[in-house]
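Weekly sync notes, structure subgroup
Attendees: PM, AL, DS (notes)

Item 1: joint prediction request from the bench team. They want all two components modeled as one assembly rather than separately. Inputs as received:
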Amino acid sequence: MAATLERDTELMLRVRDGCSSSFALLLERNRGPLVHFLYRMVQSQAVAEELAQETFLRVYKSRGSYEPTAKFSTWLFRIATHLAINHLRDTKNEKAASLDEDREDGTALQVRDDSPNVEQRLAVSQKAAEIRSAVAALPEKQRAAVLMHKYQEMDYKQIAGVLGCSESAVKSILWRAYETLRARLAHYAS
Amino acid sequence: MASGNCPLASEKDRILLLDYCAGELASEQAAVLRAHVDACPQCLDFVAAQASIGDALDTWEAPPVSAGFDARLHARIAEETGGQPWWRWLYTVLELRPAAAVAAICVMIAAGILLNRVPEPVAQPEQARIESARESAPEVESVEQTLEDLEMLRLLPVNGGGSRL
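Output from the run, pasted for the record:
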């Protein structure tokens, strides 16, 4: 993973020097992880893509002053996390509506489903809803930390860089988040 | 969760268990903790619960990125980083800082008036005076056009918004 991040930094330096194909490559490498992270943060595919576009746009606009003081992905996810948290705060009152929105565009039940029959599919759907609900109930920073830790496989140092806090603070945030998730999803424990 | 028997009672100790579950401990430290977990029912429960949370989260897949994502982004970049007409810049200023916008308009009008001033014909030959008059006519038109543009700008609806950060 370290080699990947170094490659991104190298590409960003080329973007700074005016290489547009390097930006296309950066986009290709980071588009999926970023949109998926934002999707799990805001739980709406349309909003996630809009926020990802804004993130990449800001990266592009800042290319001239880019300095590789941190990993590229730390910078990228820092911008994205701030945008997502702002969005969540701005739309706090519409949360219930936004959770329903995905059901309309068919992205609500994105849980790996190898089950053949209706009952099993319903169980999978219910599990998906519970997982979404449990993650959505976490405070924004805890949510971001868990998603970066679990799905982006970021270490504490990198999560600390994204959230702008110390590593020990990240550990504490993660501890509280997983404690909440363990309590809410306890029935999945065998 | 912690009991009197388990030495890993504090939050710091539990975070150590979290590290163990995430496979983030060095092998020696992990081996010590594994030996404890195997002998401690509470820590064994904790590790099992954490693993089940990990498994549950693993099943949550994000949908694929839509096919038009890159095209939309490139169009947006072209739109937002391309050259924009001066009145768009003024419109943005007007939206964000009305006082600055009024000041900018005053400066522009003053500049227009100064540019429009015809120098006094001090011992100027007749031909030069004619040329000077010819040159000043487009400037008058330019100032009039600017004032018309400003009037159009004044009539534009002002939107709120703009992203934070």
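Discussion: Chain A touches chain B through 49 residues (CB under 8 Å).
Action: AL to compare against the crosslinking data before next sync.
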